[in-house]
Amino acid sequence: xxxxxxxxxxxxxxxxxxxxxETLTPRQREILSxxxxxxxxxxxxxxxxxxxxxxxxxxxxxxxxxxxxxAAIGTHFAEFDGVDIALTALALFxxxxxxxxxxxxxxxxxxxxx
Length: 114
Hints:
The chain is of the alpha+beta class. It has a domain at 47-83. It has 4 helices and 2 strands. It has helices at residues 13-18, 26-35, 56-62, 66-76, and strands spanning 89-94, 103-109. A two-stranded antiparallel ribbon has the order 1-2. The chain is globular, with a radius of gyration of 17 Å.
C-alpha cells in the first residue's frame, strides 16, 4: 500500500466525510490520513465487493434476507473454507473520476515466499 502512495490523489473533505471518521477507531483514522483508506495496513481484512450498495428491502426482494445471503455464500464457497489461496498478482485499478467505472491501470506479479 505504501509503495503505491505516490499514485494516490489527496483525499478531499467529501472523501473523508464519506468514510465517516466518527465511526472509526483511532488507528483507522490514522490509516485513513496516511494512505486514504481506513481498512488497510494492519486493519485490513479480506473482503470481496459483489454488488453496489443494496438496502435491506432491495436485498430481500432480489436475493433473500441477509442471513439467507450469508448462508448461500457460505455454501457456495464451502470448499475454500480454511484453505490457503496463493495470490500471484495484484491488479491496480483506477477510477478516472468519482462514480466512473474502475479500469485496470497495471498488473503486478507477486514474488513467491517460503
